[in-house]
Amino acid sequence: MQDAINLAQLCRRFPVRVNIIEYNPIEGVNFVKAAEDKIDRFAQYLRKRNHGDCAEK
Length: 57
Hints:
Low-confidence stretches: none
Distance between the termini: 18 Å
Radius of gyration: 12 Å
Shape: elongated
Strand order of the largest sheet: 1-2
Number of helices: 2
Number of domains: 1
Strand content: 5-15%
Structural class: mainly alpha
Largest sheet: 2 strands, parallel
Helix content: 40-55%
Mean pLDDT: 84
């Protein structure tokens, strides 16, 4: 959730629209897709901080 907090603080400085784009795994990279509930909580946090333009996937 720290990433959402940091992003919300940064977004206060600029008129922004946040797009949350689903990660598609690729071979040879150790990143994994976030769980749906984590994505939802991240977006909810941003919306509550007046970033209502937050668009999911």
